[in-house]
Amino acid sequence: MSGALAKPVMRGMLAKRLRFHLIAAFSLAIGIAATFKFAVAEPRKKAYAEFYKKYDVAKEFEAMREAGVFVSARPTGK
Amino acid sequence: VAKVEEYSLPSYFDRRESPLPDIRFVKHLTPEQQSLKAKEKGSWVALSNEEKVELYRISFNQSFAEMNKGSSEWKSVLGGILFFMGFTGFVVLWQKHFMYGEIPHTFSEDWIARQSQRMLDMRINPVEGFSSKWDYDKKEWKK
Question: Which residues cross the membrane (chain B) (predicted)?
Answer without folding.
Answer: 76-94
